[in-house]
Amino acid sequence: MRVVILDSSEAVTQFAADEVCTLLHRRKNDPRGAVLGLATGGTPLGLYRELIARYARGEISFAKVATFNLDEYVGVVPESPSSYHYYMLENLFKHIDIDLSLTHVPKTCGVDLQESAESFEHKIEQAGGIDLQILGIGADAHIGFNEIGSSLGSRTRVKTLTQRTLEDNARYFDSIDEVPQTALTMGIATILECQSILLLANGAGKARAIRDSVEGPITASVPASALQLHPRVTLAIDRPAASMLANADYFLAAERNRAVASRSS
Ligand code: GLP
Fold first, then answer.
1. How many angstroms does the Cα of residue 27 sit away from the middle of ligand 1?
2. Domains, the chain, with CATH or none
3. How far is the CA of 260 from the centre of ligand 1 (A)?
4. 262 — pLDDT class (breaks 50, 70, 90)
5. For a substitution probing ligand 1, which of 142, 206, 238 has the most ligand atoms within 8 Å of its CB?
6. Which of 7, 135, 24, 25 is nearest to 69 (CA)?
7. With contact defined as beta carbons under 8 Å apart, do 45 and 91 qualify?
8. Separation of 259 CA from ligand 1 center, angstroms?
9. Is the pLDDT of residue 31 over 90?
10. How confident is the model at residue 137 (pLDDT cuts 50, 70, 90)?
11. Pocket mutation for ligand 1, best pick of 168, 190, 191, 237 (most atoms within 8 Å of C-beta)
């Protein structure tokens, strides 16, 4: 795992935006276009703001880009401000030149959920897989809505949310009683099939989750620890989120060496 410890959440945003732009530029002349995996929550908001700014400055285009979101609540209509459909439209899609027919957020309304999950997996396959998956992380180390205990071999399916996730996400609803109890989420195995993964985390509230995911054993009790199995994972985290890492100094030294190597190449 590449662990990049940065001085501020703004630096995390810039790092993430650079990674996305590198992919978009690499794919610019490829008819397939880039395939991005997207996340919701508070953490990626800075990234989306920065991508919108770079698009407005003419630095990037999303014209051929396809996207797949990690998850969506069950029982929330796409038009609801609490839905992840709405979140993506408001915070990214409506501000850029993306073809909305190439954007995919799991469908959970008026559909058979099992069929919807299978068709979501099928669409990822048809798109040629996800090039870069953006992830946030829950305070208990869940990714997407793969809650503690999620099988490391899981695929897109319905998951019941834990009490902690309901409490953490209550801020997006009028009250905790309105937070849906279930969500359709990409599975851990689905996430592990992405070409590369970029996990973002800010703040001391994520420090334990980061430590357990990076330095603890691989276990379904810490869903993000499964990322240790993937050969191309980068964590871009601020100092408070890195504060419980036993090997923080090592990760900082590794990044200094990487910078030296890239300057001399
Ligand atoms: C939700 C989302 C996750 C996200 C997590 C953390 O549970 N399903 O994808 O990573 O919240 O959100 P935040 O970035 O607001 O801390």
1. 28
2. 2-264 (3.40.50.1360)
3. 34
4. confident
5. 142
6. 135
7. yes
8. 30
9. no
10. very high
11. 168
